[in-house]
Amino acid sequence: MRRLGCPSCGAEIWFHNTACLSCGAELGFQPGRGLVPLGSDRGAACANRAVIGCNWVAAAPGGLCLSCAHSTVVPDLSVPGNDRRWARIERDKRMLMRLLDALGLPLRDAAGAPAPVFELRGDPIGPAPGPKVITGHAHGTITLNIAEADDAERERIRAEMGEPYRTLAGHLRHEVAHHYWDLLVAENPAALDRLRPVFGDERADYGAALERHYREGPPPGWEATHVTAYATAHPWEDFADTWAHLFHILDSMETALAYDLLRDDGLQGLEVAALAALPVERLAEPWIALSVALNAVNEAMGHGRFYPFVLSPAVLEKLEAIRRLLPVAG
Fold it and tell me: Mean pLDDT score of the chain, rounded to an integer?
C-alpha cells in the first residue's frame, strides 16, 4: 500500500478514509491516480458510499466504482449485521482490486463486462434453512460466505481447520487466483508446459484429490515443497495459495517501503508494479527479514505471528513462476 496525502492540505490519509481528518475535505480514491476531491472532474462518489462507506469514485454520479461494479450479489440488508459484513468485505476487496489494477491484470471479459465478479452471500436462515454457502470460484464468479466478515466466526473456522492464517484478504487473493488460472493458464499451452513441472498436473481428479486431502491430510514433509498444507491437495490449490502469498508479499513490501520499515537501497521508493517486475529471488531476502521482524513485534504485542509460513526454495520457484504471468513482469 502506498502512503497517500490529502490533495487539499497535504495531510496524511489512510487508504480507506472518505475525508481528510485534518481539513475535512471529502475525498475519493481513483485507481492509478490516488486520492481526488469529490466533485472534481475526475470522478463522483460511488453509489455505495452512504451504504457501506465506499471511498472510491465512480465515473458518473450515481454509478458504481471499479471495485463495487464487480459485486453482482450483495448481502440481504434486512438481516441485522449484514450491512457491517458487506462493508468489511468490500473494504478488503478494494485492496484486492487496487492490486489487480496496479499489476495490469485484466478486469473485463471479452464482452467488456466486469470479470471476475463476486457474489457475497449469507447462509440461509429461517425454520428450514438450506445448505450453507461455500466460498469458492466457478467460471469467473467468486462466491464468498459473508460469515467470514465476522472475526469470531472466522477464527473458529481457522482453529477447526488447523490453519495458521485465515483472513478476508487471504480468501479474496486465493479465490481470484482460480479466475486468473482459467484466464492466463488453462488455455495457454506454453503456460501449462511451464507450470506443470512446478505445480504438478492439474488434470488429476480434483474431487478425488480434495477428498483424499481431507481424509488423510498433507503428506509428511510437505513444508519443503508447499507454502501451506492445503496447497498439497491439488495443483490448482497449490497455484491459488502460492498466488495469494505472492500478493501478500508484494502488498506488504510496498507498504513497508512506504513507511520506511524496510531498508533496502535497491528497493526504496518502488511501488507494487515495480516490485512485481523484479525476480522473486531479489525480493526474498528483504521479505524474509521483514517478516521475521514483524513476527517478533506481533508476538511482543501478544498477537499471533504476522507471517507464519516458511518459504522453501521450491516455494520460491513457484512464486517466481506465478510472478512471470503478471503483465508487469515484462
Answer: 92
